[in-house]
């Protein structure tokens, strides 16, 4: 992925002990539930971090000049025939390594210690006893404190040269370290919120054992990304797909800062937008950034391409393709405008975030849940070079970068709206009439939610039109046979998981009454009370 990031690996996270490592902290993913969470916690300790799959060869990892490596947990048993292994070469490279759970066990095995299936299993909250020999990882922590466990195998003997620094009632080797070689491991999960001292343990490893200077701050993200983008784009020209959402606004602002008016932002009106969206984007973004913006009318093109299509993945792929065709058209127009002096526009900037990548099946061994139009929905014949400076980050991280760049709260705290727009909120074929119905219902819901002051409590509230479902109603003493809409209010930190928001009944009542009174084809309003997982936020 490094070739599409626009290069946000910060330089200079050097290990003070003269070890290599001006690159990121690499989290090696052994199929963990929490690999991204580890990377995120490392970034919270102000050290840049990215996840790599466990089958990445050691030489390839070392080529990135990692500041340290964290081996994640995973479902396998280290001694199973097909269990993913750690190449012992890694431990000879001098790069500091922290093993977590499976990573701890795999590290033990690679270094000559013993892992056993002892029959003891620990799941959930477990009390950790810090050994009297102390150790760097648990320095200044209480002698007994809770940690989160999830394992069936245990380390029964630490490798030679390692000091056991913690135990639990059932696990005699719950953590070890060899700080002189920059190596340490823990059986528990320091990355989860249920290990209340976990962040301190990670910090000890990164700052004290690995000797990395904490310098990944929003200021450094901005400076380093701007420098990397400037180097990547050089004198060339670029366009940025701008949606009015926070991700593309921040990506556009970063690139604008890097290359100024070599960048033109392109907003596509595909006819799948919400009411008033186009005008709002034209007004707010230009006012906030001064960047150059062109608006392309592609309503007819998208309407025709989507005619007759009902399958969600097919819709997403078509939308991804048509977005790119529209960007190509915009690039051609801009080149023609510039006349002979204008060179080909090679770069396309997108506000892609990590959740878009992982849901599109772009993580290591992760399933394709849905093809986000800007990742899994891209056509194979894509001619642009992608510049995606936020590709490793989560939205709350991006919001902090946006604030650092001085973008207004109206943009930074805007609720997300998916690129495929209302098309993935009409269950069934997308037609102009159905779009109009949904647009009207959505406008009412948004208006009422804002009026009841809950905008900042919810992540977003899609309104979904069940266009292929009809139900009988009675309105004005007459029978109606209309469509239901679904309200899907969710709360979330990063869209990877979400809960349904308990909205005030009064707000729900006003939304329901107004939609059924004011929107002709809708005679029923329902509420989606499903968390994610098992549901997703959007219905398609
Ligand atoms: N109407 C549009 N015109 C141009 N580009 C778009 C449009 N919609 C989406 N994109 C591109 O697709 C990317 C992904 O969309 P996505 O909705 O995830 O991000 P966003 O709109 O920037 O932020 P948010 O998630 O807050 O809505 C955007 O960052 C942008 O580059
Ligand atoms: O730009 C986008 N292109 C897409 O194809 C897309 N699909 C979902 N989303 C948004 O991503 C977040 C997670 O959504 P799901 O729980 O439905 O997967 C939610 O915020 C969704 O609104 C998209 N955004
Ligand atoms: N969460 C983990 O990494 C578990 C490791 C290993 N599968 C065990 O059960 O012990
Ligand atoms: Mg959006």
From TrEMBL:
Gene Ontology CC, one term: cytosol
Enzyme class: ligase
CDD domains in UniProt: GATase1_GMP_Synthase, GMP_synthase_C
Name of the featured protein: GMP synthase [glutamine-hydrolyzing]
Catalytic activity: XMP + L-glutamine + ATP + H2O = GMP + L-glutamate + AMP + diphosphate + 2 H(+)
Cross-referenced Gene3D superfamilies: 3.30.300.10, 3.40.50.880, HUPs
Residue sites binding ATP per the record: 243-249
Function of the molecule: Catalyzes the synthesis of GMP from XMP.
Assembly behavior: Homodimer.
Domain of life the protein comes from: Bacteria
Sequence ranges assigned to domain GMPS ATP-PPase in this UniProt record: 216-414
Annotated coiled-coil segments of the chain: none
Residue span of region Disordered: 1-22
Organism encoding this protein: Actinopolyspora alba
Involved pathway(s): Purine metabolism; GMP biosynthesis; GMP from XMP (L-Gln route): step 1/1
Enzyme Commission numbers on file: 6.3.5.2
């Amino acid at each position: 992925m490094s070739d599409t990031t626009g290069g946000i690996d910060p330089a200079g996270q050097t290990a003070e002990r003269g070890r290599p490592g001006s690159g990121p902290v690499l989290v090696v993913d052994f199929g963990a539930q929490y690999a991204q969470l580890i990377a995120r916690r490392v970034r919270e300790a102000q050290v840049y971090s990215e996840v790599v799959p466990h089958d990445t060869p050691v030489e390839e990892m070392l080529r990135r000049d990692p500041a340290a490596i964290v081996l994640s947990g995973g479902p396998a048993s280290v001694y199973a025939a097909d269990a993913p292994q750690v190449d012992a070469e890694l431990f000879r490279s001098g790069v500091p390594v922290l093993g977590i759970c499976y990573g701890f066990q795999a590290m033990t095995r690679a270094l000559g210690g013993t892992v056993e299936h002892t029959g003891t299993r620990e799941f959930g909250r477990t009390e950790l006893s810090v050994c009297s020999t102390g150790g760097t990882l648990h320095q200044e922590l209480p002698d007994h404190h809770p940690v989160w466990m999830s394992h069936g195998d245990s380390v029964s003997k630490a490798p030679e040269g390692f000091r056991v620094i913690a135990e639990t009632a059932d696990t005699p080797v719950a953590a070890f370290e060899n700080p002189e070689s920059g190596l340490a491991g823990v059986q528990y999960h320091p990355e989860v919120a249920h290990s209340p001292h976990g962040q301190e343990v990670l910090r000890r490893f990164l700052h004290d054992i690995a000797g990395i200077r904490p310098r990944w701050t929003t200021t450094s993200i901005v400076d380093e990304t701007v420098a990397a983008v400037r180097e990547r784009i050089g004198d060339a020209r670029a366009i940025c797909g701008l949606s009015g959402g926070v991700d593309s606004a921040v990506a556009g602002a970063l690139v604008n800062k890097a290359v100024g008016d070599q960048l033109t932002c392109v907003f596509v009106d595909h006819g799948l937008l919400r009411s008033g969206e186009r005008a709002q984007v034209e007004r707010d973004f230009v006012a906030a950034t001064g960047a150059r913006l062109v608006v392309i009318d592609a309503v007819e093109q998208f309407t025709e391409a989507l005619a007759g299509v009902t399958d969600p993945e097919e819709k997403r792929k078509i939308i991804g393709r048509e977005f790119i065709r529209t960007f190509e058209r915009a690039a051609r127009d801009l080149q023609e405008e510039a006349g002979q002096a204008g060179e080909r526009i090679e770069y396309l900037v997108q506000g892609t975030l990590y959740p878009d990548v992982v849901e599109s099946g772009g993580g290591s061994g992760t399933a394709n849940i849905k093809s986000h139009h800007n990742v899994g929905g891209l056509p194979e014949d894509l001619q642009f070079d992608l510049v995606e400076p936020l590709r490793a980050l989560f939205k709350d991280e991006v919001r902090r970068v946006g604030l650092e760049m001085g973008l207004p709260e109206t943009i930074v705290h805007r609720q997300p709206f998916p690129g495929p727009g209302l098309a993935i909120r009409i269950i069934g074929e997308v037609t102009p009439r159905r779009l109009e119905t949904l647009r009207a219902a959505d406008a009412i819901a948004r208006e009422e939610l804002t009026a009841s002051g809950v905008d900042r409590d919810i992540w977003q509230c899609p309104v979904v039109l069940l266009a292929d479902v009809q139900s009988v109603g009675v309105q004005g003493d007459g029978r109606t046979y209309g469509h239901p809409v679904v309200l899907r209010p969710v709360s979330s930190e990063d869209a990877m998981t979400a809960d349904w928001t308990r909205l005030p009944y009064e707000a729900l009542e006003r939304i329901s009454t107004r939609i059924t009174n004011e929107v002709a084809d809708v005679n029923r309003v329902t509420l989606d009370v499903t968390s994610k997982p098992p549901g997703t936020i959007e219905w398609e």
